[in-house]
Every structure is written in structure tokens, then in C-alpha cells.
Amino acid sequence: PDLLNSKTFKNYLKDEKVNKLTYDFKAAKVALMWRDVEFNNASFDLLLAAYLIDSHYGREEFKYIVSKFNYNEVEYDEFIYGKGAKKGIPEDTNLYMKHIVSKARAIYKLKDKLIENLKEDNQYDLLNDIELPLSSVLAKMEFEGILVNKEELLNQKLEMEKRINIITDEIIWHAGREFNIASPKQLGEVLFDELKLPHAKKTKTGYSTNVDVLNKLKNKHPIIPLILEFRELNKLYTTYLSGLEPVIFTDNKIHTIYKQALTTTGRLSSTDPNLQNIPTRTLEGRQIRKIFVADENNYLLASDYSQIELRILADIADVKALQEAFNNNEDIHSETARKVFDIKGDVSSEDRRAAKAVNFGIIYGIGSWSLSEDLNITPKEAQDFIDRYLGVYPEIKDYMENIVKFAEENGYVETLVKRRRYIPELKSKIFFQKEFGKRTALNAPIQGTAADIIKIAMIDLDKYLTKNNKKSKLLLQVHDELILEVPKDEVEEMKQIVPKIMSDAYKLKVELKASCDVGKTWFDI
Predict the structure, then answer these.
(1) How many CA atoms lie within 13 A of 238 on its CB side?
(2) Going by DSSP bridges, is the β-strand pair 253-254/298-305 parallel, antiparallel, or unpaired?
């Protein structure tokens, strides 16, 4: 606190011309923003550099990371601060200060080594042009937060409690006795010992009652659909409706934290709370978005990339027919159905759905078994469908073979901007692990490139808003979508600008497209 009262120190932190070397610049920037202190110009960040060198390092602690680069003159945090309930700043402040200095020294001493490493792998630009600028953008988003309508939250909570109680009573009536529905052990006993339902699978802790088992039992007893509904509503209730209350700040906003160095794909992940995982497929899940609102006189604006991963596949695998269909603004799934099923006239919704399942599934290395389950057809029919699909788009077949071969030879795959994903599973003697490695090799360059492109769009959008002194603010990133809060007098401009910036973020062989919606709540967009 004394240091943060020093004008000299505050000027040093703010100065754009003075380079700072950091570890987790974003966390430091947000912490200082809450104290009304500006922190600018991190020219190097140890956490982000290590994460780019190997994405598995990002989830480890400081000492583990530096030890991977043969530097050991640092203690574990646990040794200094303790753990659990006893965790805190030690009474011996000398011990604490030495620990901080040892970390600063490690950053300084390892900087050149890590930069050299990044340059060797053509990743230095990825650190400087994407990850470091993005840290500042994310810090602003975290600090800004999104407004919550507490009345709506309370109403939904009470409504959900009523529904859960009604379903609980129905389940207990069907079971013939009271039991804890949320306990898999007790549920297993009711379903398989007492109601004698089929597909019983014993595990060490009792019967398996996971979603796959319950789905097989859907038509066997009226208790099953009720249990599935109970689980879905209970998850929404605990995670969001009662789970959101403790994380609402005094400004009536939720300030989610973005983990920039966590995922192996390069995607951002949101925690405390996770706002990227609010379900959108069910009405109850979508309703939760009504809780998130724009301030008075403002609107929320959402801009979402259209089929970005398929467009990237069309580029990376150089699929001429897909590129042509995208560039001619055709319905890609209907076009695929026409080619695969040799349809001359209109495409039925069933054929389009099948084509869509393969279009998206192929990116994730879908097999005949998974496709047969998705489309409710036999595995043989599904395999025949995949074979015809790869016959129509032979470049995809070549890409799949070549990328797996590249990964087996080099141990990694990379995105269009050189983000690497190492795939040790390809060396596994275990069949399932090796197959997972192959699917990862297919998908990581595509999913990773999508993550990189939206990061570039966020940086470009932030530059535009800052340069033009706009009041509009970027609030959230949810996978392929950006959500802003926009004042009424900037709405029309932002409806044009945001999708354009997203489309122009990266030049592919096909045009990137982004939709745009405006409303007073997140539900409306």
C-alpha cells in the first residue's frame, strides 16, 4: 500500500515508454485498476511465453514453470504462504519479500532464453502481437464487468425452486420411497435394485447412473425423464441461480475472470463464474441470460462468427468446393447434402441435418459410431456417408491424412499463426489414447486458429474504441461471439463496425462473416 501511494512508482507503472517484465500481466493490471492505478507496457510476460512454448505449462505454478527451463532458485508458493485456511502473507515479511525478489530475478534471467525459444519456433510475433496486447483488453473487460438484474435473478430462483420441488415429489412417488435424487449411489439402488430396470452397470461405488445409462432407459420407466429433467434444472439452479449471488460485486456487476493460459487449444476460458458455459439449447438455460442486462440508456450488442471453423477448414485443407460455396453465400449444409446425396432439387430438412452433422463432425474427427448415434442410423450407413463425403471433398481426406502424419513425425500441430499444440498421445501404445491423439491433430489447428482470429478481432476492436474515444465497451467473449455494452447514440455505428472488424481480423481464402444483434438483455441477443 505504501508503494502504491508513491507518485514516482505510479508514474513508472503508467509510463508507456518504460518496458516492464511480468508474470501474469493481466492479473496485475486488474488488481491495480481496482486500486485506481494504471499499469502499462508489459514487453514480456513469463506466464504467456511459457504457455506458448508448451500449453500445458500455463496451468502450473511459478516454480514448476521456471524449473522446466532449468532455473531452480525459487521456492514453492505453498512454502511461503501456507495452504488451505492457513494461507496468507507470512509474519516474517522478510521471507515474503525475498520470495517476490527471487521471482522477479527469475523473470529477468529467463527472458532472453524464452524469447530465443519462441523465435526458433516462429512464435515471438504470437506473444508480441496477440497474447500481450490481449492481456490489456481482457483486463479492461474483467474490470468493467456485466450488470445483473437482481430482481430477475430472485424471480428465476424462486420459480426454479418450485419446479425442482414438484419434480422431486413426482420422482419420489414413482420410486415409492424418499431418497436423495442427487446421490448416484441411492439413485442406482432405486433404479436397478428396486425398480429392476435393465442396463445396470456396477462400479466400485455402486451402479452407474450417468447420462448415457439414463438415456438408454428413457422409454423403460416414467421416472427416467423426470430424473434427467431434475438433473438439468438442479445444475442450472446450483451453478447459476444460487451460484451467481455470491459473485455479484457491490456495483451490481459480475466480473468474470478470463484464463488466458489455461486451455491447450488457445481458447480463452472464463471462471468465477464461468459465463461461457450457460446452456443455450434449452429454454431454461437461455432464460438465465435475462439476468444479464445493459445499463440504463445503453444496449447489449452481440456479434457472432458464422461457421468459423468450417471456413477455416475450407482454407487450411484448401477445399475448392467449400470455398466456392462460402464465397457465393450458399447454405453450406444444403450444398453439402446436394453433393453427397446427389440431389438435384430441394434438400429435405433431414438430409440437411445429416450434412450438417458431418460438416461439423469431420472437424472433430467424427467416427461412424458417433455419427450413427447422432443421426440414428447404423454404423455401416454412417461409414458409407463419411466415405461419400470424403469423395465429394477429397482435399479434406488429404488434409486428415497429412496432418496426422505431420503430428506423428513432429510431435505437434500448429495454427495459421503458429500456435503449437503438442500431442504426446500419438506415441501411446494404448489404442484409445492414440485415436484421441489423431482427432486432436485434426481439430487443434482449426479450433486454435478460430481462437486466434477472435483474439485478433478483440485487439482490433479495442484499438478502434480507444482511438475514436467511443463509450462502447467490450464486456464478454463467449467462444465465437463478442458482447459489448453500447450507448444508444453509438448503436447504429457499432452494428456496422463490430461485424466488419471481426470479418477483417484475418485474411482467409473465404470471407469471414459475423452476425449482429442488439437488445436490452443478453437473452434478447
Answers:
(1) 7
(2) unpaired
Give the residues across from 477 on adjacent strands.
Answer: 482
Q: Which helix (H) or strand (E) holds 147?
A: strand 146-148
Cβ neighbours for 495, distance < 8 A, ≥ 6 positions apart: 301, 516, 518
Angle between helices 379-392 and 332-341 (to 10 degrees): 100
Neighbour-count burial of 142, counting CB atoms closer than 10 A to its CB (0-12 exposed, 13-18 middle, 19+ buried): buried
C-alpha cell, 144: 468493467
Does the pTM surpass 0.85? The reply is yes
Q: Residue 117 is placed in which grid cell?
A: 525459444
Residue-wise over 438-455: b if at least 16 C-beta within 10 A, else e? bbbbbbbbbbbbbbbbbb
HSE, CB side, 13 Å, CA atoms: give it for residue 85: 0
Residue with cell 510476460: 45
| The residue type at 291 | I
- Helical packing angle, 349-363 and 332-341, nearest 10°: 100
Look-up of cell digits 448415457 = 212
- Phi, psi angles (nearest 5°) of residue 209: -125, 35
Classify residue 162 as exposed, middle or buried by CB count within 10 Å of its CB (0-12, 13-18, 19+).
Answer: exposed
Closest CA to 458 of 435, 475, 439, 441: 475
Pairing of strands 42-45, 20-22: parallel
Report the alpha-carbon distance of residue 63 to residue 263 in Å, rounded.
Answer: 20
Neighbours of 367 (CB within 10 A): 15
Compute the distance between CA of residue 28 and CA of residue 260 in angstroms, rounded to an integer: 13
- Closest Cα partner for 453 from 277, 263, 312, 301? 312
Write the pLDDT tens digit of every residue in 121-153.
999 999 999 999 999 999 999 999 999 999 999
Strand 253-254 to strand 412-414: parallel, antiparallel, or no bridges (unpaired)? Answer: unpaired
Within 5-61, residue ranges assigned H as helices are 7-14, 25-34, 46-53
Q: Which residue has the cell 450407413?
A: 381
Separation between Cα atoms, residue 85 and residue 97, nearest integer Å: 22
pLDDT in tens, 65-86: 999 999 999 999 999 999 988 8
